[in-house]
Amino acid sequence: MSQDRCFSVRHLHRITEMASHSFSALISLRSLDLSENQLALIHPEALSIPGSPLQELNLRHSLHHFTAPTDLTTALRWSGLGGLLRLDLSGNHLALLPPGMFSHLPNLQQLFLTNNSLVDIYSGTFSATSRLELLDLTHNVFTTFRADALQELQRLGNIQILLGENPYTCSCEISHVVAWFNESRAQVDVDAVRCASLRGLRDTRLRGLSGHAIGCVDPVQGEVLDLTLQTSYVFLGLVLGLVGMVFLFVLYLNRKGMKKWIVEMRDAWREVLEAYHHRYEVDSDPRLRHISAENSGSRAQDGSRAQGNLG
């Protein structure tokens, strides 16, 4: 067999299982295309080939069982693919990448993870991939990146990282991501990295966004604002204290007049209350009420007689 010969098994449809040493006889195999299959079981040594000649492995749209990613991780570890240069895992509904998943691929240069369901990157995910040149993470469901995820990407150095076409949430919580985009040495597809929300920033590029645009206040500005508020409160307290002192001083100067006014008000209220008290006693005493009724009756009779005499 020629050393430059590339083998492809893409024409084999509906492959559901990769047994141990499935390709061990192909000692000159350089490229293996298993895309568009339905792999449910991958043996730990399924990709084991004497001399580890494999350089390209295409598993696009091929992992159709929830255990397949775990099986693949084990296979990448046990199959001795130290010479693998290109790995395509696109379109496999991957939700997470286990730490160290690619640590046994020290020569890997291109890694395609597009069209999956990745929401985060964990520390150590790309450990030992010091020769990586291209990392494609487009068309996943990243809304932001945690600090350790950015450190993991930063550790890859000056490589091409594709992060576009993800639903980034452009709120204050993403400010550290914006800062990373502005400062990173990585070659990021910045034109495709855009806000999916909020409404006012939709389809806006993340790189170059200011803290004010995403609703954040610069720490220095925040400290200045806090100091200004504290100064305002202190000034308001001093003003109110001064007003109180002036009021007390005015009262002190007019203490005699105030005392006279208070005494007069007290006497006036006392007279009013005594009048109401007397009226209440008259109305509540049944004897006085009977006399009052008789007086009213006699006055009524006198009035009737007077009208009769006039007539």
From TrEMBL:
Residues spanning the membrane: 233-253
UniProtKB keywords: Leucine-rich repeat, Membrane, Repeat, Signal, Transmembrane, Transmembrane helix
The UniProt record lists the keyword Transmembrane: yes
Keyword Transit peptide: no
GO cellular component terms listed in the entry, alphabetical order: plasma membrane
Top-level division of the source organism's lineage: Eukaryota
A GO BP entry: negative regulation of canonical Wnt signaling pathway
InterPro entries: Leu-rich_rpt, Leu-rich_rpt_typical-subtyp, LRR_dom_sf, Wnt_signaling_inhibitor
SMART domains from the UniProt entry: LRR_TYP (SM00369)
Alphabetical list of PANTHER family matching this protein: LP06937P, TROPHOBLAST GLYCOPROTEIN A-RELATED
Identification of the protein by name: Trophoblast glycoprotein
Native source organism of the sequence: Liparis tanakae (Tanaka's snailfish)
Lineage, top ranks: Eukaryota, Metazoa, Chordata, Craniata, Vertebrata
